[in-house]
Amino acid sequence: MTSIRKQARIAGALYLLMGVTAPIGLLVVPGRLIESGNATATADRIRASEWLLRAGIASELFHQVIAIFLVFALYRLFKSVSERLAVQLVVLGALVSVPIMFVNVVNELAALMLVRGAPFLAPFDRPQLDALAYLFVRLHSKGIDVASIFWGLWLFPFGLLVIRSGFIPKLLGALLIIGGIGYLAAAAISLVLPPGAATTMRSVAGILELGELP
Question: Please, which residues have CB within 8 angstroms of residue 121's CB and are 6 or more apart in sequence?
Answer without folding.
Answer: 113, 114, 129
